[in-house]
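WARN no homologs supplied; continuing
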Amino acid sequence: MMSGNANITEVITLLTPSELVGIDLRGGVAIVIDVLRGSSTITEALKNGASKIIPAGEIEEARALADEWPTGEYLLCAERNAIRVDGFNLGNSPFEYDPETVSGKDLIYSSTNCSKALIASYEADRVLVGTFNNISAVMESVGMVNRVFLICAGKMGRFALEDTVCAGMFVNEFLRDTSHEVALNDASRVAKLLFDFYHRDILKLLRESAHGNYLLTLGLDRDLEFVGQVDSERIVPELSLDKTYFFSTYIPKASGEEQPKSATKEPVVRTAAIAFEPNIDKFEIREVTSD
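OK structure emitted
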């Protein structure tokens, strides 16, 4: 992949938003990753014509924001533990955010994990939303910056396997994309190892993760299949300059594609091609069994 990231000198992975305490994000680009399912849901909503996404950390905050919004111009979107909150219009499945429902609407969005991670990242110069679906487009959007922060939403404040593997995929691509040495923190190295282990079967990863297994018990198999698609989207959600909402940037492929009506910034044309080339010469991951 050649995406104009030649200036990157450091990739820092945070396995949960709580690790942001004491971290100075200024001067860097933050990529917030919530594989199950916030990143894909936000991306799908913007692709299907939502005007903007306004994150709210808590349910009460979402309701308060709605009280200030013009009637008929917004939808209240919230879930807790993967279940839509009573009285809200939508939950957190990407399949709920179809064009007929979200086109032209402002979405006030609160989720168990993603919205809090987004808000915690606001100090960064730019905040992007990334996942397996839009990894090439996000890579191309990062631009000429020195430091990138991969912020995993986690699950209820704890480590989430699927977010970490996705972060490892980003680490893998940043390393492939530069000819010089890139500094990695320990979490980035671990994320890369996990990606090397799982890269051939992302759906298997999702099914084996604790969060993915929980969604399967709710009958949300389709959601796992959707969020596990690599490079299925060219939309990159990005935080507005006034840090109040997320809008969509459309990144066309090199061959050229028609820009969706939902895109709200001028497209940036760069070439991209995802390739999986795990390098595990120095590390191994073995199954360990106890006696």
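The chain has ten helices and eleven strands.
OK
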